[in-house]
Amino acid sequence: MSVWKDIVRKEDGPQLEQDYTLGRVLGKGAFGVVRLALDKKTGQMYACKSISKAKLISPEDVEDVRREVDILNLVSPHHTVAGLKSVYEDRNAVHIVMELCVGGELFERIVSKGTFSEADAARFFRSMVEMVAHLHALGVMHRDIKPENFLLTDETDAANLKACDFGLSDFFKPDQRVSALIGSAYYVAPEVLRRSYGPECDIWSLGVVLYILLSGMPPFWGDDEKAIFTSILRGNLDFATPPWPQISQPAKDLVRTILNFDTKQRATADQILQHPWLREHGVAPDKPLDSVVISRLRNFAGMTKLRKAAILAAAQHLSYEEIHGLKELFKSFDRNGDGRITLDELRAGLTRHNKLADCEIEQILRDIDVDGNGVIDYEEFLASTVNLALLEREEVCMKAFAKLDKDGNGTLTADEVAEAMGCTGRMSEQEVRDVIARYDVNGDGIIDYSEFLKMLRESDPELRKASSTLKRGELALDPVVHK
């Protein structure tokens, strides 16, 4: 029996080679290999990370890969993440198909280009911070922020930077402290070395990356891991050695704000995004960014009642790895663990991500609470926060349609539409007719499967989005700290 049961597609399901043609090797790691993968249907190229089951010796190894898949499903899509396309399993390996980034590592680009201004550093650093803000809003900490884990999308000067490795990432809950010693030596935060940390460790790692981007050297040195850790715990920042005297004061101020030993005083990702050094380079918006959680909730609230019911039905047919991340996020809102999110719990959860007026939070609860019982249950939360791109899969759509098509004749009649929308509150006959008219393309008074598909995939923001060495004295930057 597969140790991956209910984690990825079953071994007797669709196989990788049916959907993709595998090409040359892009890279190798401890557990497997990354290869080019050509989508046979679309002709688009992806990267396929194949993890050998033979190398997953312990249950912890299996759990690590399972968690990586969960997290990739949760954080994709996002403009700072090399997003997940699909996951397969066969007898020998688990295959993770992801967005392909062909522009190489950032430090390699800097070295080959020969010049790199503070404005360049600000643009790339902002992308890294946006990635961390995105993860933290979803209750995920990366735990291995370093330049090698970011790739450029293409070889042009306008290329975007995307995070490509979430193998050490994990879920966190508010006020939870973690003890596992994880990360890469030069970038690890002092509280990680003390084995009591939270998501603030990612911020420290960002500060180390920014220091290197600006100076070409890490802030904390050592000939071996022990010496590096001692330097980190001492925390003496050097702004006297060239090129620091020529670097702007706002840049140095930002580094100090990030590399703060006091985790309570250390800047958050959202605060970093508002720092003058980033804003003065024209890459920071005037208004605060909405968190992905609030964006998805608001997007769900604006849907028609029938589409809400359809997504609620479809979301229940997603696989374990596609919704496990959202289950963890639901738990972070559900503070008392009773399986429901009350107004007070929603207020506390949303306040962690962004400041909203009470009236806005109350409206969000009313809109998400489709059965009108005054709380948000897990199914409602899942439907309102799921990455809608996951609902494009044909088998998910067919199961959702079948659930609403009570008589099984292949169409949704007015009575079936009314019943489907019944979970969202009472509907008048006119409201039912209006909803049908919105999606009834051929005007026959019913909704067939093709019309249902168009409704389910209706354009919205979620679906529209669709180097270890800095060559300065061959400085090695990636000693790894394992669990």
UniProtKB/TrEMBL annotation:
Gene Ontology terms for molecular function: ATP binding; calcium ion binding; protein serine/threonine kinase activity
The keyword Glycosyltransferase appears for this protein: no
Protein name: Calcium-dependent kinase
Protein kinase domain mapped to chain residues: 20-278
UniProt: ATP binding residues: K49
Domain EF-hand: 321-356, 360-391, 392-427, 428-462
CDD domains: EFh (cd00051), STKc_CAMK (cd05117)
Similarity comment text for this entry: Belongs to the protein kinase superfamily.
Coiled-coil regions, chain positions: none
Keywords tagged on the record: ATP-binding, Calcium, Kinase, Nucleotide-binding, Repeat, Serine/threonine-protein kinase, Transferase
Taxonomic superkingdom: Eukaryota
